[in-house]
Amino acid sequence: MSNNLSDFLVDLASDPGRMAAFLADPFRMLNESSLSEDERAAVMTRDGAEIRTALHITPWQAALPEGVTARRPPAKGKPKPKSKGGSKTGRKKK
Amino acid sequence: MIAPARAGELVVVGTGITLVVQTTPEALDCITRADRLLYLVTDPATETWLRRLNGAAETLRDCYAVGKPRERSYRDMVQRILAAVRSGAYVCAAFYGHPGVFVNPGHQAIRRARREGFRARMLPGISTEDCLFADLGVDPADSGCQSFEATDFLAYRRRFDPTSALILWQVGVLGEPGFPTAVPCRPERLERLTRVLRRHYDERHPIVLYEAAQFPISEPKIRKIPLSKLPATRLWSITTLYIPPKPSRAPDPAVMRWFDEK
To answer: What is the pLDDT of residues B112-158, one digit of tens each?
Structure first.
């Protein structure tokens, strides 16, 4: 039995049989879990934003690892050299 | 190239976008076998999974702090990773998505480790762009595809070809270099982006606001709107903007004749 939403989601994602059982009868699996009412409601929406909210993830946290990589433009009077393929920090864009 | 002589090894891997199911077997093996697993992921579920896989898992999230410049956070992450490698351990650094796409510390850590004589490599992972190609049915081979970080696109006046597809990342956080305390999506910045795009596209040109599915039970979010509606749209930091190509211009007849050559 999953003790919280993270465990519940990981259990589902790690076990195709469990995922199939969820998709066939989500209410049954949720009723067997110890998720809160809010967590169950979020799972039933199958909406990423609702699930993130139930996991207490803010939109900002969701974006952190892939990084808000905006960089400040060069200081005034020091235009960026042209014909540079990469970024200022040398990171490759893809 | 000088053969690495020092004990200690670094492998940088990606966990993919969708929880659990998008981590490659090769990455999974490294995550499981590592003496030290340092990770930076977006959600507590992935964190739970990584901690189940490897009891020595440590988050790099505490390198971020409100008001702390992002570049300093990245430096701190690289230092943490390198310190673990220098201790002689087999170190795995796991990042959300593809570890080399929009992940500054992944590349930096590899370079630093190699400079110091350690064996270091990066394994490819599944990025948002990979998910986008699959979910939107887009093949970059059809007419090409250009991909920019949205603020970089505006700040450096990137030149692009509107007859090829255009992908703008992080369009919901234009010009936000740090760790803001509030959700931004400033309409005036979206208006500026729209003005730039309007030089190349009709106001009715369709654009797609895309979010990959983060959980196996959730669906990707795909919202099509005309370009003119962009400034009034509420965008989140994880939204990627996809702009389909305009019709191709006439091909070069000299090149097209190549197909008839024997």
So the answer is: 999 999 999 999 999 999 999 999 999 999 999 999 999 999 999 99
C-beta atoms of B175 and A70 within 8 A: yes
**How far apart, in Å, do the first and last CA atoms of chain B sit?**
44
To the query of whether residue B70 is one of the catalytic residues in this protein, the response is yes
Residues of chain A in contact with residue B61, where contact means CB-CB under 8 angstroms, are 64
- Rounded to an integer, what distance in angstroms lies between the CA atom of residue B98 and that of residue B18? 12
The whole-model pTM stands at: 0.86
Active site annotation includes B210: no
- Could you tell me which of B139, B138, B99 has the C-alpha nearest to residue B10? B99
Backbone angles phi, psi at B225, to 5 degrees: -140, 160
The burial class, CB within 10 Å (0-12 / 13-18 / 19+), for A9 is buried
- E-strand ranges in chain B read 9-14, 36-40, 57-59, 90-95, 119-122, 145-149, 165-169, 206-211, 221-226, 240-243
Write out the H or E segment, with its range, that includes residue B133: helix B128-136
pLDDT tens for B27-39 read: 999 999 999 999 9
pLDDT tens across A8-21, in order?
Answer: 999 999 999 999 99
A 54-83 residues with CB < 8 A to B: 55-73, 80
